[in-house]
């Protein structure tokens, strides 16, 4: 429901923005005295000022004309989408002749790295304050490194570091504190868990970079990528097409609680089929995701422990990275639609298509692409 809602909101509003693009141009120059590049009815400007609701309805009829049913609602369409995903899954691991494995640490090489990775923030689950642990690392550090290396070699994550404590934080002081939706859960994990995850994240990220597994158009949670790089690319593409006299349509998709709905079985399949993990490395991630639990702490009170059976762990180091890997099949679906560009920032998806004013029929391709995305998202348990 939320996917469709976001889709309609942005499609209704953005055509007037694209009309502005075609009139101004990428260098902010004033337009020449000529008619609009986008073939909008002349009365739309008056509607925008006097009746925005009617304006959105008129734009909807232009941008989303009546069209036949979804291409992917019939069994052959579903099979086509599944075949595309399976084919991409078979091809991708071939880029990695040697599956990445988690290597144990060398005490002398990693000592400084681990000390610098420690945070001084407190977690109720820590036996010792992390600040005290950091100052005494010279004495007890080798024992911690032994725990980390044993976890990496055996592919097992200690159970006690898979428990989190959630602290509800009111999003805004003006919100109703009696409603659960007014709070944002802040997750705290044991500091040893953070150290172990940083060690694994460093090795996994190196393998992803070496074998070019990241989606090229994913700007979230990646070094040298940010919201600025995503905005720069999308804006540059739209303004370049505007200078060429093209019309553009941009669709922005937002997901509801995407990080909390990740299916663990599907995530492990992504790690195996798309990243190429196997053996103890894959077993480590299976152990990391299984038998997780959390409790909620408010003031001096704490709830009983509850199992966490889906989603990437909040407040974790690996959570954002695992979420990006969970989205890997989506890039092959998006790139299969020639003529449609896309860019992602974590779970925020930007789709855009440019065309000449007389090629409005190309919007049907965008409609089909959105159907394909929705079909995949349903299978990935997104909403």
TrEMBL record:
Source organism, top-level taxon: Eukaryota
Ranges for domain Reverse transcriptase: 150-383
Pfam families according to UniProt: RVT_1
InterPro entries noted in UniProt: DNA/RNA_pol_sf, RT_dom
Protein name: Reverse transcriptase domain-containing protein
Native species: Nothobranchius furzeri (Turquoise killifish)
